[in-house]
Design a protein that fits this description.
The chain is of the alpha/beta class and 289 residues long. The protein is built from eleven helices and seven strands.
């Protein structure tokens, strides 16, 4: 029986993937924040084991890996999915970012993935060459959405980590890849028109005065409209990720979702300057140089 550990599995894409893998006969360890409800994971007949884990703290991640190792009783782990992430901290233009919020965002989105990879790699190596790591980045790594600089930075770092891991783990038989999802209709994007409006209310007056005339429409109307009108359902994303898991040889990066798939083609064929120009045009951003 194949085994998997999924971070951030209490809801959204992590929950959906846990349930689907269980349906396919996998034994799934579901990482969940302490205190969260796990009733959807523990339905009678399912082979899913919730494991408390806070990826923002090293002790919690190490403890979760020890829990999984004890339940595997010497067997290895086939799949690690680094799905846990947040986007509701350090929002807004880069000049106005709160550094402490930015650090906390990185603790979850970037260092959280690093901690989990470090803690679970011994179990993955035990089943090489059958072991895989899926690290979730985001399509914003290519699109670089205005007003989401902090989130984009954290996901660029994930991409860099994963590309390096591919070299370091190749001799050991462990495959790693970066998943770059597009917009997904989850609790994170619920009421996105309202939440993007609120971001501007949290910015200092002097920063808002400089940037709001140029970027408010892009961040509170154009971007939310893209997510609502072209975003992907959790179910759609899960089916695509399942196909990736079943691939014999993983590619370095997968753009997942109908809204981001064209970015891969554009990135391959267009110059950086041309792609940047198209992104600015889509967000109606003027250029004074």
């Amino acid at each position: 029986m194949k085994t998997a550990f999924i971070t951030g599995a209490a809801e959204g894409q992590g929950l959906s993937l846990a349930l689907k893998l269980d349906d396919l006969g996998w034994k799934v360890f579901a990482g969940v924040l302490p205190g969260l409800v796990t009733s959807k994971l523990t339905v009678s007949g399912r082979n899913i084991i919730p494991v408390e884990q806070d990826v923002s703290t090293t002790d919690s991640v190490v403890q979760s890996s020890e829990t999984v190792a004890s339940k595997l009783n010497g067997a290895g782990l086939n799949l690690l999915v680094n799905n846990a992430g947040i986007a509701n901290l350090a929002q807004g233009v880069i000049e106005g970012l709160d550094i402490e919020d930015l650090q906390q965002l990185f603790e979850v989105n970037t260092y959280g993935q690093l901690r989990t990879v470090q803690a679970f790699l011994p179990m993955l190596r035990a089943v090489a060459p059958e072991a895989r790591i899926l690290n979730y980045a985001s399509g914003v790594v290519i699109a670089n959405t205005p007003g989401a600089g902090a989130y984009t930075m954290s996901k660029h770092a994930v991409t860099g980590m994963t590309l390096t891991l591919r070299h370091e783990l190749a001799p050991l038989g462990v495959q790693a890849t970066t998943i770059m999802p597009g917009g997904v209709k989850t609790s994170m994007t619920k009421d996105i028109h309202r939440t993007t409006q609120e971001i501007w209310n949290q910015i200092s007056d002097n920063i808002r005065t400089v940037y709001e005339p140029h970027l408010r429409e892009a961040t509170t109307q154009i971007l939310p409209d893209m997510v609502v009108n072209r975003g992907n359902s959790v179910e759609e994303m899960t089916e695509k990720v399942l196909k990736i898991i079943g691939t014999v040889k993983l590619k370095p990066i997968y753009l997942v979702g109908k809204d981001v798939k064209p970015l891969g083609i554009m990135r391959r064929w267009l110059s950086d300057s041309t792609l940047e120009k198209l992104i600015r045009m889509s967000y109606k951003i003027d250029t004074r140089y």
